[in-house]
Every structure is written in structure tokens, then in C-alpha cells.
Amino acid sequence: MRLHHVVAAQDFNRVMLEELFATAREMEEVVEQGGSRILEGYIMASLFYEESTRTRFSFETAMLRLGGSVISTENARQFSSVSKGETLEDTIRILSGYSDVIVMRHYESGAARRAADISRVPIINAGDGTGQHPTQAFLDLYTIEKELGRIDNLTIAVVGDLANGRTVRSLCYLLAKYRNVRIFMVAPEVVKMREDIKEYLCRHDVRFTEESDLRAIAPEVDVLYQTRIQKERFGDRTEDYLAAKGVYVVDRNLLRAMRSDSIVMHPLPRVDEITIDVDADPRAAYFRQAQNGLFIRMALLAACLGRDIVPIQTAVTVNGNK
Ligand code: CP
């Protein structure tokens, strides 16, 4: 069966994730061999209403590496007819007549679902405001499995802007699909994890605790998942931003408290929440993580367009199932 819209992480179950990761592993080989033509004749519309480096470039590279073509706007608010007052729905109606798949980043939570509701072609959510970033969460799990050899029995600390961080929200939804996962949530008071995620984790019997002392829990973690305090989400609440910024920093001192077989991840971009002298440590996995985004997005595009190398067996309709 063919994968259709990719809107929310919790729509995926373990079987689908395992098949996606199997395809991503195949895509690593495809890239090694210089690419493929399996998406020749297909067009991807890359519709970005918010800034991006990794997500946009990796999706566009993924399409090109598979022989497809890309039409693109990297600043849809300014450089599309949205600036003349066109609605998201009308934009999607038009683009779904021109392209075979739409990769969209939007500044409003829920925008990807609205687009999926009216689109004739698959919508891939490339981040919707403070809502979700499912494709980032797929590549995060793929990285964890690649680096540590497992996702079950994992202890992970998610750190930083947990209230606004769409990557970490999607990651929590996916972690709930795995066995014996323990989550430490470490966030400044003004950006603590929202109740919807905590309720979801409770419903799925995932152990989590809110912690304030990152150094104290560092020796216990397999994965330290750091995130940026997102200045752009605070609006005029400058005091809140300043209260959150710089509270939790991963530096060489903190690395000394971590186990030698643990890893540090970050969806990037980083500002100052991981010091650059951490980069040379073999546990710093964040650049490898960004590279994995290419393979996962190649696998997603192939699956959405029905041209997967390893067949995807299940459609994306399994809400909330482990
Ligand atoms: N991780 C991530 O979404 O990065 P970009 O904002 O650069 O796409």
C-alpha cells in the first residue's frame, strides 16, 4: 500500500516505522551509488512559509537524487500570492494540480492537517508552527537506532524549549510506540512540556519525569536530545525568552558526566546551547543526524509516490496504535 499524507507522528505505527527505516537504509546505498531515476517524471512542490536549511534542502536533494523535479518557494509569505491575500486552501488546490507531492512548512499549528484535508496529492508536514515536525522525528529515531542499535529500553533526556519545540513533541509521540522508554524532561520554567504530550505519554504507559538538574541525570541517559530556545516563538515576551536562554547548555563539562556509550542529539540549528568544542567528541551525533534526514526523506518521497524500494505495507491511517 502507498503512504499518503504525512501530517502527524502518532499516525505511524512500529511496522510502518521499521519499513521506512529499511527503505532509508536502501537509500543510503542509492546515494553511495550516485542516485537513482525511480522518481523521474514526478514533481515535488516545496512550499515553505517559514525559514529552513535542513528540511528544505534535504527534501529537495532527496527528490533530485531520485531523479524527480522540484518547484519551490522558500518564503511563501512574501513570494507567493499569499502576500495578496490568497488562503492556504486555495494555494494547496492550485499546487495539487501542478505537482505530485507537496512538502509544506507553515507557521501555524494545524496547517498541515488543513492542507491534507483538501489536497489531491500527498502533503508532507515539514513543520507546522509549534505543532509537529514528524519527518524530523523519523530521522531522529533512525539516528538513535543507527547509533545505539535499539530504540526499546532507551533512557532519553529531552532538553530546552519543550513547550514550543515541534521536533521534540513529534519525537515523544513516536517514543511512545517503543518498549521500556524512559524520558527525562528538562526545561526552564517558562517553556515546560505542554499537557497534551504528557497526557499522551501517560495514556501509553511511558515513564517520564520533569527534572531541573541536567548534570544529575546526565550519567543515566543513552540520548541527550538538546533543543534551541526558539526566540521567534516568544513574540514580545522578551523577559520569558531571557529567562529560558542559556539555562541548559551542553558543554565539555557536561560530557564528562555522560557515559561513553551515550550520544548527544539536536535537530539544529543550534545557537549556543551546545558549545562548539563538543563537536569533536564522538558522542556528538547531531551532524550525522542531519545527514540521516536525506535518507529518511528519500524513503518518504518514494513511499508517498508509490515507488518505494522496500514495499510499505500499511497506509498512514493507524491513529495512536503502538
Ligand atoms: N531541524 C530542522 O527542522 O532544521 P531547519 O529549520 O533548518 O529545516
Indicate the topology.
Layout: H1 14-32, E1 43-48, H2 54-65, E2 69-73, H3 76-79, H4 88-98, E3 101-106, H5 111-118, E4 123-128, H6 134-148, E5 155-159, H7 166-175, E6 182-186, H8 195-203, E7 207-211, H9 214-217, E8 223-226, H10 238-244, H11 252-257, E9 263-265, H12 286-304
Parallel strand pairs: 1-2, 1-3, 3-4, 5-6, 5-8, 6-7, 8-9
Phosphoric acid mono(formamide)ester is lined by residues 52-55, 127, 133, 136, 267-269.
Q: What does this protein look like?
A:
There is one protein chain. This protein is α/β, with parallel strands linked by helices and 322 residues long. The protein has helices at residues 14-32, 54-65, 76-79, 88-98, 111-118, 134-148, 166-175, 195-203, 214-217, 238-244, 252-257, 286-304, and strands spanning 43-48, 69-73, 101-106, 123-128, 155-159, 182-186, 207-211, 223-226, 263-265. The protein has a five-stranded parallel beta sheet, covered by helices on one side. α6 packs across α7 (166-175). Phosphoric acid mono(formamide)ester binds next to α2.
Structure characteristics:
322 residues, alpha/beta, 4-stranded parallel sheet, 14% strand, binds phosphoric acid mono(formamide)ester
